[in-house]
Amino acid sequence: MLSSSRHALVIGNSDGIGLHSTRRLLDRGWRVTGVSRRASPVVDAAYRHHVLDVCDRGYVEKLRAILGQKAVDTCIYCAGIGGPVDPQDLRSDVHVFEVNLMGALRTAEAIVPAMVAAGRGHFVVLSSQADALVVARAPSYAASKAGLSSYFEGLGLALRPYGVAVSNLRLGFVDTKMARASVRPFMYTLDQAVDVVESVLCKRPLRLTRPLSTALLVRLLAWLGRWRVFFTRGPISPRA
Ligand SMILES: NC(=O)c1ccc[n+]([C@@H]2O[C@H](COP(=O)([O-])OP(=O)(O)OC[C@H]3O[C@@H](n4cnc5c(N)ncnc54)[C@H](OP(=O)(O)O)[C@@H]3O)[C@@H](O)[C@H]2O)c1
Asked: Cα(28)–Cα(6) distance, rounded to whole angstroms?
């Protein structure tokens, strides 16, 4: 059970895991500030929503202005997008990195110094087990999550002496609009995913991977992917 009267910032919470985590935190008595591009369906006296894009120019300053001087107890970075690569236009891949990776870094830039000054705080990022994969169909999603996992686990080690915890949550499929694959093995319900988020808030692990059944499958896919990369060589014939 999470303790009450704490202040959480949830980035990317108009939908999916962020929205359900927000509702769970409010049920547990937390005060929550949410950020996303769309309005929130949540109506609660302990909830404040801000319509803001993590890719906006001035995002860091706007977030600081929203929060004021006081450190939040917890930040959960849930904003994330993904999609297939378009070889003739890579702008959407750049956008995936902006949201999944740079948005998380900018959020940390805005709030971690106050946590360090206060000597406490917890920054949680929602990465993915896809961070271990090389994916031809949607390379930006897996690669942005690989960067997210690597950076925040390193930052977590760096922040330990300052009393600030970082957790990298690596989920498999969760039943939201983001899970669009035709086959979604071992998919979590939103409730199961939020149970895991809640346990991360309690135990503050540097890394948590769930479900473990997906982790075994990902290990096999990562191994196959490495061989595919290793054996892919030589010129390819141009399309007629
Ligand atoms: N679902 C899965 O199978 C799965 C598996 C592993 C990891 N994850 C990760 O878990 C996180 C949440 O995923 P989800 O399944 O809950 O996705 P979702 O239902 O699509 O929700 C994504 C949230 O991110 C917000 N968002 C997107 N772009 C944003 C931006 N530029 N600025 C601010 N907010 C933005 C969206 O709100 P607006 O559109 O209103 O901005 C929405 O509230 C993601 O990082 C995802 O990669 C998901």
From this structure: 10
pTM beyond 0.85: yes
Check residue 1 and give its pLDDT. 45
Judged against a pLDDT cut of 50, whether residue 57 lies above it is answered with: yes
Please list, in sequence order, all residues whose beta carbon lies within 8 angstroms of the beta carbon of residue 58, skipping any fewer than 6 positions away. Answer: none
| 126 touches ligand 1 (CB under 6 Å) | yes
Is 7-231 in CATH node 3.40.50.720?
A: yes
Residue extents of the structural domains in the chain = 7-231
Among 138-147, 190-199, 227-236, the range scoring the smallest mean pLDDT is 227-236
| E runs forming strands in 78-206 | 122-128, 165-171
Among 176, 184, 186, the mutation site with the greatest number of ligand 1 atoms within 8 A of its Cβ is 176
Report whether residue 12 contacts ligand 1, using a CB cutoff of 6 Å. Answer: yes
> Are residues 190 and 174 in contact, defined by beta-carbon separation less than 8 angstroms?
yes
42 lines ligand 1 (CB under 6 A): no
CA distance 9 to 48: 10
Tracing tokens 């297939």 back to the chain, one arrives at 84
Beta-carbon contacts of residue 131 (< 8 Å; ≥ 6 apart): 142, 145, 146, 148, 149, 150, 170
CA of 158 to the centre of ligand 1 (A): 27
Give the other-Cβ count within 10 Å of 191's Cβ.
10
